[in-house]
Amino acid sequence: MENGSRTASITRWDFSPGSLPFPLIIAHRGDATSAPENTIPAFKKALNLGADGIELDVRLTKDRELVVFHDRVLGRTAAGSGPVNHYTQDELRNLDVGSWFGAEFQGERVPTLDEVFESLPGSYLINVEMKAIMTGMRFIAHKVAEVVRRHARWDATLVASFNPISLWELRKIEPRILRGYIWSRRHPFPIRSRCFSPLVQANWYDPANDSYNNKLHRKFHSRGARVLAWDVDFDQDLKRMAEARLDGIVTDSLQNILGRKEILCGLSK
User: Name one GO biological process term (predicted).
Assistant: First the structure.
């Protein structure tokens, strides 16, 4: 194992808001600088490097099953073309999602959420983002809930989405699952806004850097919710992030931020 002695110390998402001396470091789609994004190797590399957890994306397939995949359409990380939901789960799992990244990953397959849960420690933090804007926006919550129940992975799983309807459905059918509400001003209404917060009743609020401010942060903490920032420029926002006592950050620069963790801890004192 790479840096095998480094293990995550936080094993649940429902800790007291603002209580950590340093925000959780969550690897966006795994360690996507060392392995193809949203694959088992990327997730294991993040774990071995010392990330507190990983973020991944799930989509519904043509046969209404889940696959771990970010883009709406094939072509960037997987051979093929057209929307993901025009393919069955088996068809997608036959695609190569590793060759684009490097020859050593040739033949890497699209994982299922079950496979990810089975491949990582049960106490390792996983942030599952539901990708559904219109089609399947309620059904995807049912499928994710089924997987979480099957693995009894309550404390170490956070399920997030831009779509408030998906999160509302999740709250209705399985309130034990912790929910994260994502938004960004760069996205179209209604997912660029947090106006549906009362509907969602999130445990975590996940603003992009363009939507984050300290006033909102204090407001969420006063309600007992936690804040997970993403799309952060770690060179320009390092001091701001430390002073704000964020509960977590989602990063594409895992090795960089892990290497600067001591600096950040010093700034936050």
Answer: lipid metabolic process
The DSSP output letter for 143 is: H
The answer to whether residues 87 and 73 touch, using CB atoms and an 8 Å cutoff, is no
pLDDT at 246 (0 to 100): 83
Of 71, 40, 74, 73, give the one whose Cα is nearest residue 54. 40
187 a catalytic residue: no
Count up the domains in the chain and report the number.
Answer: 2
Q: Residue 254: which domain range?
A: 124-269
pTM beyond 0.90, yes or no: yes
On whether residue 61 sits in a domain, the answer given is: yes
pLDDT lower than 70: segments of the chain: 1-8, 187-194, 210-211, 232-244, 262-269
For residue 61, give the CATH number of its domain: 3.20.20.190
Q: Which residues of 214-245 are buried (b: 16+ CB within 10 A; e: fewer)?
A: eeebeebbeeebbbbbbbbeeeebbebbbebb
Please give the pLDDT value at position 141: 99
CA distance 143 to 140: 5
Q: Taking Cα atoms as reference points, which of 72, 45, 67, 65 lies closest to residue 56?
A: 67
Query: Amino acid letter at 169?
Result: E
pLDDT for the residue 1:
37
- Of the residues 28, 86, 142, 221, only one is catalytic, namely 28
Q: Based on the fold, state whether residues 137 and 222 are members of the same structural domain.
A: yes
Q: Are residues 147 and 269 in the same domain?
A: yes
